[in-house]
Amino acid sequence: MNVELQKKLKNDYPEIFKYLYLEEDDIPNDFDDRMGLPIELFGIECDNGWFTLIDTLCNTIKNICQKSDTPKVHQIKEKYGGMRFYIGSMSKDTYKQIHGAIMLAENMSYKICEKCGTTNNVKLDESGWIRTLCEDCRNE
Ligand SMILES: [Zn+2]
Q1: How many angstroms separate the alpha carbon of residue 122 from the centre of ligand 1?
Q2: What DSSP character marks residue 35?
Q3: Cα 48 to ligand 1 centroid, rounded to whole Å
Q4: How many whole angstroms from 20 Cα to the centroid of ligand 1?
Q5: What is the pLDDT of residue 63?
Q6: How far apart are CA 70 and CA 110, in angstroms?
Q7: Which distant-in-sequence residues (6+ apart) come within 8 Å of 117 by Cβ?
C-alpha cells in the first residue's frame, strides 16, 4: 500500500497502528535489538484497493473498543488472493466481536479488486500469483 494511504490509516487509528512506522521518528529506540513484527518491518503488505476495507474494519474495531484496550495490528497482508489481518492481544469482552469483524472483512476482500478497489467483475486471478482483481486490472 502506498505511503500516503498508510499515513491516513496511522493518523486516523494511532492506537491500532502503533507499530506502523512511516517516519524516522516513529521507530522505537530498542528496534535494532529485537525481531520486528511484520508491520514494523514491511508496513501494510497489500495493494491500495483494499484501503476502504481496512479503514472500515479499523473504524469498527475502534468503536468496539471504546471502553477497553484497543488491539494493535501485527500484520496486514495478501495471501492466496485474500486480505489477512493479524492483531495482538485484546480484552476478553471484545474478542468475539473483533474476530467477527475481521472475518467479515477478510471474506469481503475476495469481492474487492486489490489494485483499484472496484467490486465490478472481480474474481480470483489464478494465473501465476493468486490475486483478487477486476477484469481491467487482470488485463493490465
Ligand atoms: Zn481493478
Answers
A1: 8
A2: P
A3: 10
A4: 26
A5: 96
A6: 26
A7: 48, 49, 50, 51, 52
How many angstroms is it from 108 CA to the middle of ligand 1?
A: 15
CA of 124 relative to ligand 1 center, distance in Å: 12
Output the pTM of the full model.
Answer: 0.94
Distance 46 CA to ligand 1 centre (A): 13
Q: Is 20 helix (H, G, I), strand (E, B) or coil?
A: coil
Which burial class, exposed, middle or buried, applies to 126 when counting CB atoms under 10 A from its CB (0-12, 13-18, 19+)? exposed
Angle between helices 92-108 and 51-64 (to 10 degrees): 160
The torsion of the CA quartet 114, 120, 124, 128, rounded to 10 degrees, works out to: -70
User: Could you tell me the distance, in angstroms and rounded to a whole number, from the CA of residue 36 to the centre of ligand 1?
Assistant: 32
pLDDT value for 33 = 79
Average pLDDT per run of 10 along the chain, which is 140 residues long? 97 96 88 87 97 98 92 97 96 94 98 98 91 94
Please choose, from the candidates 5, 4, 3, 19, the residue with its C-alpha nearest in 3D space to the C-alpha of residue 86: 19
- The Cα–Cα gap between 1 and 77 comes to 10
